[in-house]
Design brief:
109 residues, mainly alpha, 2 strands, globular
Length: 109
């Protein structure tokens, strides 16, 4: 049994988003919109050992991104879900409709 906290889930989502964004050509600015700024603060805090796997990955990807150009930047915006911001609702809806296809589906013998 594995326990996953909401902070870990948020960090993983941020990690995936940053990874996707930096692999798009001609991207120079990344804006991370989150309803958990608490999780974002954990990215840059190396003392939280339970979140280090995400912190190291995100930091490494951002380092590569910043080395590409001195004009590259990242911003973190907090937008609590209770604000009913239209973009937040759109992303929330799109995320819930996402259907992941496993790369290595389970095969019974």
């Amino acid at each position: 049994m594995v326990n996953i906290t909401s902070t870990e889930a948020e960090l993983f989502a941020i990690r995936c988003g940053i990874n996707k964004a930096i692999n798009i050509p001609r991207i120079f600015k990344i804006v991370v919109i989150t309803d958990s700024i608490y999780a974002v603060k954990r990215i840059f805090d190396s003392f939280f050992h339970s979140f280090q796997i995400h912190s190291v990955f995100i930091s490494n990807e951002l380092r590569k991104f910043f080395l590409l150009s001195t004009n590259n930047s990242i911003e973190f915006w907090e937008c609590p879900s209770h604000c009913n911001w239209s973009l937040h609702q759109m992303v929330n809806k799109e995320t819930k409709q996402f259907c992941q296809i496993p790369l290595f589906p389970y095969k019974s013998s």
